[in-house]
Amino acid sequence: MTVDLAERVFIGLGGNLGDRRATLESALRWMADHPCIDVVQSTPLVETEPWGVADQPRFLNAVAEIRTNLEPGPLLVALQSAERLLGRTPNGLRWGPRTIDLDILLFGTRIIETDALVVPHPCLVGRAFVLEALLSLDSELIHPVSGMPLATYLKDPLTR
What we know:
28% of the residues lie in helices and 24% in strands. A hairpin with a 4-residue loop joins strand 6 and strand 7. The chain is globular and about 40 Å long.
């Protein structure tokens, strides 16, 4: 599918409960089937250590590059709907175990700060596996706030 006037967006996918691989693959299919989303490419799935809360199962993660004509708010609502369809239930524990997490990492070059959504994702530069995945999709990505190449954050941990 080709989405007209599409914005380039990067979505982080992760989960550590249930059949992680099947859930992440279902999330990618859900995005590909959505009439306003075109999945351009995605990274391989990688297993990562829990972040934020250590005492939980390991995560499976990926990043997808999409094109969409949805604005950030409606895209967030759509992704949250997909999370619920794929079995995510609110557990109240920030960074706790979950079947699926779909995060908007970058939305073009936009800087978004609302009660519901902050883009670039606030933890983007602190997670090496996310930076590595993003850079594998586009090695020239720039952080919209700092104006620095994302590769800088990976090479120099002090910039995180």
